[in-house]
Specification:
The complex is a heterodimer of chains A (about 500) and B (about 90). Chain A is α/β, with parallel strands linked by helices and about 500 residues long. Chain A contains 14 helices and 21 strands. In chain A, strands 1, 2, 3, 4, 5, 6 and 19 form a seven-stranded mixed sheet that branches. In chain A, strands 8-15-9-10-11 form a five-stranded parallel sheet. A three-stranded antiparallel sheet of chain A has the order 12-13-14, with no helix packed on it. In chain A, helix 11 packs antiparallel against helix 12. With about 90 residues, chain B is mainly beta. Chain B has a single domain, classed as 2Fe-2S iron-sulphur cluster binding domain, sarcosine oxidase, alpha subunit, N-terminal domain (Ubiquitin-like (UB roll), Roll). Chain B contains one helix and eight strands. The longest helix of chain B is centred in the N-terminal third of the chain and has 7 residues. The chains are: A alpha/beta (about 500), B mainly beta (about 90). The interface between A and B is large, with 45 and 40 residues. The structure holds flavin-adenine dinucleotide and FE2/S2 (inorganic) cluster. Flavin-adenine dinucleotide binds next to helix 1, strand 4, strand 7, helix 3 and helix 7 of chain A. The site of flavin-adenine dinucleotide has 38 residues of chain A, from helix 1, strand 4, strand 7, helix 3 and helix 7.
Chain lengths: ~500, ~90
C-alpha cells in the first residue's frame, strides 16, 4: 500500500508525462509519476520489455534518442529520490484534498490484489493520452480485426505480427507507420484504405506542410510503400468484414467526399488481419472526474479546456498531451515540458532567470506549441471521419461490442422510445454500459444519436459517453479496502 | 533467449520473455479465447492496449484478466471460456 505526498503528481508516462516528470524533477520539484504501463514510453515509445534487453531496442521508432535521453534522466531522478515512479499502477479516482491539492487513488493495473494506495499532491499534471477512435463496420467484431494502434502495439512491444495478410483502413497519417511496420515484419499488406483524399503531406510532402520533420517522415513512408509494393488507396473504405469465426476477407468500396460508398466499386480482398483507425480518442475520464471543463476539438474529440499554460479549469489540475487535443508525440513532449515549467512557477520553485523555468523558455514553448497546433488542425481537416459513415451499417452491425448492442437496437430505441441524444440512447439501449464503459463505442454512439436528431454531435453527447464512475477497473476487494477518511483526516 | 513454457487449455504454448499472453497466443495463431455473453461469439485482441476488454482470459484460475497486458510467465495456465458479467 502506497501513501505518498509530493509537490506534483503526474499521471501517464507517455511522451507528455515522461517529459513533464523529467522537467519537473529538473526544476527541483518532488515528483510522483504514476503509469499503468510497466515501463515508460506510453503508446508512442512502446518498446520490448527492458528486463530482457534486445540489441535493436528502438527498431521502428522515431525520436528514439530523445526517448532514451528522457528515460535515463527519469531513472537518474528515481535513483536520487527526487522522483517516485509507480509502474503498473493505475489511477482510478481523483479528488480534491483538504485544505488544498489533489488526491489520486491507485490500484495495480493487472494484479487483482486489493492493494489500494494514494498519492496526495499540491498539483497534478494529467497526461493520460488516448486510444484509437473506432467506427463500427459490419463484421468488425470478428477476431483478426484490431485497432490500428493495437497492431502497432503488438509490433513495438512484443515483436509480434498480428497475422499474415493485412488490410489497414480508416483515415489519417497513422495508417502509414502501421502498414510499413507490418510490411517490415514480413506481413503482406494488401492495401491501405484512406477514406479521405489528403492533398497534404503524402502527395506533396515538401510543400504543403511547414513541419520539416513530418515532411521527411512522409518521404520515408512513400519510399517504404513503394519498396513493399503496398497499394495506398484514397477515397476507399472497408465497408464490410467477412468471416465465420475469424476474418477471411473485406469489402473495399470507393467512397465520395462524404464517405458514401459508390455503387459498383465494391471489391473483395482476402486477409487475416484488418487494422482500423479513425484518429484517436483522448482519455478524458480523470479530466471529467476532476470537474474540469471540456470541449469538442476540430477532429470531433472531447478534449480538456486549457489556457496557454495548460492549466485546466479545475484548481491544481494541469493537462498535457493528447488530452488537450490530438497532436502527436512531438507536441506531447513539448506540452509535458511546458506543463512542468508552468507548474513549478506556480508552486514557487521557479529557477533564476535564464534557468530551466524561465519565462523566456515558457514563451518559446508556447510559440512552438502554436505552430504544432496549426499543423495538427490542418491534419484533422484533411482527415475527417466521413460524414456518412453510418450508411455502411446494417441492422445487425454491433455498435457496442461489450453489451452486443446492434445498430438495429439503437434505431428501435430511437423510433419506439424517442431516444435522440447519447445519454438517453445509453440508458434505453445500454451501449457503453459493459466492460469498456463506452471507451470503444462512445464516439460512434454520440454520432448515431446526433444523426437520429438530425443535428451535429454535441459536447454533451460525447461527455455522457466519456463520464465514468471509475477511471480504471478495480475489483470489489480493492473498493472494500478503501478507507475514505485516510486522506481527509491525515 | 530461452522460451517460456505455458499452457493454453492444457496444450503447450511457448512465449518469449517479455511478451504478453496475448502476443504469445497471436504468435501461436490463436486469435480468439473467449465467447461473448449473449451471442456466444469469439473474441480475442482488439485494442491491444487494455482499453476494450475483448481479450479477457483466465490466468492461473483467475478470470477476466486482460491478455494484452498480462506478461507471460513460465508455468502459467491459460484457459479460454465464456464471458462473465461486467463489474458495475
Ligand atoms: C495503441 C496506440 C499506438 C500508437 N502508435 C503510434 C505510432 O506508432 N506512431 C505515432 O506517430 N503515433 C502513435 N500513436 C499516437 C501516439 O501514441 C500519441 O500521439 C502520443 O503517444 C501521445 O502521447 P501522450 O503522452 O499524450 O499519451 P500516451 O502515449 O497515450 O501515454 C499515456 C499514458 O498514460 C497512462 N494512463 C492513462 N490513464 C491512466 C490512469 N488512469 N492511470 C495510470 N496511467 C494512465 C497510459 O497507460 C499511458 O502510458 C499511437 C496511439 C495508440 C493509442
Ligand atoms: S485487447 Fe483491448 S483490452 Fe486487451
Amino acid at each position: 500500500m502506497t501513501t505518498l505526498a509530493c509537490d506534483v503528481a503526474i499521471v501517464g508516462a507517455g511522451p507528455a508525462g515522461l517529459s513533464a516528470a523529467v522537467h519537473a524533477a529538473d526544476a527541483g520539484l518532488n515528483v510522483a509519476l504514476v503509469d499503468a504501463g510497466t515501463q515508460p514510453g506510453g503508446q508512442y515509445w512502446r518498446h520490448p520489455d527492458e528486463s530482457h534487453p534486445v540489441p535493436d531496442e528502438g527498431e521502428g521508432h522515431h525520436g528514439w534518442r530523445e526517448f532514451t535521453d528522457l528515460r535515463s534522466r527519469l531513472y537518474a531522478h528515481e535513483t536520487t529520490g527526487t522522483l517516485t515512479y509507480l509502474r503498473g499502477t493505475q489511477v482510478w479516482l481523483i479528488e480534491p484534498a483538504r485544505p488544498a491539492g489533489v488526491v489520486l487513488r491507485l490500484a495495480p493495473a493487472t494484479d487483482p490484489a486489493p492493494a489500494a494506495g494514494t498519492v496526495t499532491a499540491r498539483h497534478v499534471i494529467l497526461c493520460p493520452g488516448g486510444y484509437d477512435r473506432q467506427l463500427p463496420i459490419p463484421g468488425w467484431d470478428l477476431p483478426g480485426v484490431m485497432a490500428a494502434g493495437g497492431v502497432q502495439a503488438l509490433l513495438k512491444g512484443n515483436r509480434t505480427a498480428a497475422g499474415r495478410v493485412a488490410v489497414v483502413a480508416g483515415t489519417g497519417p497513422f495508417l502509414l507507420p502501421v502498414a510499413t511496420g507490418l510490411a517490415h515484419a514480413g506481413v503482406k499488406v494488401a492495401a491501405i484504405c484512406e477514406a479521405n483524399s489528403p492533398t497534404g503531406w503524402l502527395r506533396n510532402a515538401g510543400g504543403a506542410v511547414r513541419a520539416p520533420a513530418k515532411a521527411l517522415e512522409g518521404v520515408e513512408y512513400a519510399t517504404a510503400l513503394a519498396r513493399h509494393r503496398i497499394p495506398y488507396k484514397i477515397r476507399t473504405a472497408v465497408t464490410a468484414i467477412h468471416g465465420t469465426d475469424r476474418v477471411e476477407s473485406v469489402t473495399l468500396s470507393r467512397v465520395d467526399a462524404h464517405g458514401t460508398a459508390i455503387a459498383g466499386t465494391q471489391r473483395t480482398v482476402a486477409c487475416d488481419v484488418v487494422a482500423l483507425g479513425w484518429g484517436f480518442t483522448p482519455q478524458l475520464e480523470l479530466v471529467l472526474a476532476a470537474g474540469a471543463e471540456t470541449t469538442v476539438d476540430v477532429d470531433g474529440s472531447l478534449i480538456a479546456v486549457v489556457d496557454d499554460r495548460l492549466a485546466s479549469t479545475a484548481p491544481g489540475v494541469t493537462v498535457a498531451g493528447e488530452a488537450t487535443g490530438v497532436g502527436g508525440a512531438p507536441m506531447a513532449v513539448l506540452e509535458g515540458e511546458l506543463a512542468a515549467l508552468c507548474v513549478s512557477e506556480a508552486l514557487g520553485v521557479a529557477a533564476a532567470p535564464g534557468g530551466p523555468a524561465s519565462e523566456g523558455r515558457i514563451r518559446a514553448l508556447q510559440r512552438d506549441r502554436a505552430r504544432l497546433h496549426r499543423f495538427a488542425v490542418a491534419m484533422h481537416r484533411a482527415n475527417p471521419v466521413p460524414a456518412n459513415w453510418q450508411d455502411w451499417l446494417t441492422p445487425e452491425t454491433l455498435v457496442c461490442r461489450c453489451e452486443e448492442v446492434t445498430h438495429g437496437a439503437l434505431c428501435d430505441a430511437h423510433t419506439e422510445l424517442g431516444a435522440a441524444d447519447a445519454r438517453t440512447l445509453k440508458s434505453f439501449g445500454r451501449p457503453g454500459m459493459g466492460w469498456c464503459q463506452g471507451r470503444v463505442c462512445g464516439f460512434a454512439v454520440s454520432e448515431i444519436a446526433a444523426r437520429f436528431a438530425n443535428r451535429p454531435t454535441s459536447a454533451d453527447d460525447l461527455r455522457s459517453m466519456a463520464k465514468r464512475s471509475l477511471a480504471a477497473p478495480v475489483t470489489l476487494g480493492q473498493l472494500a479496502a478503501l478507507d475514505f477518511d485516510d486522506v481527509h483526516e491525515g | 533467449m530461452p522460451e517460456l513454457s505455458l499452457t493454453f487449455d492444457g496444450a503447450p504454448l511457448s512465449a518469449r520473455p517479455g511478451q504478453t499472453v496475448g502476443a504469445a497466443l497471436t504468435d501461436a495463431g490463436v486469435v480468439a479465447w473467449r465467447t461473448t455473453r449473449n451471442a456466444g461469439r469469439p473474441r480475442g485482441l482488439f485494442c491491444g492496449i487494455g482499453v476494450c476488454f475483448d481479450c479477457l482470459i483466465m490466468v492461473d484460475g483467475v478470470a477476466n484478466q486482460r491478455a494484452c497486458l498480462t506478461p507471460a510467465r513460465g508455468g502459467m495456465e491459460l484457459r479460454s471460456g465464456r464471458e462473465t458479467e461486467a463489474p458495475e
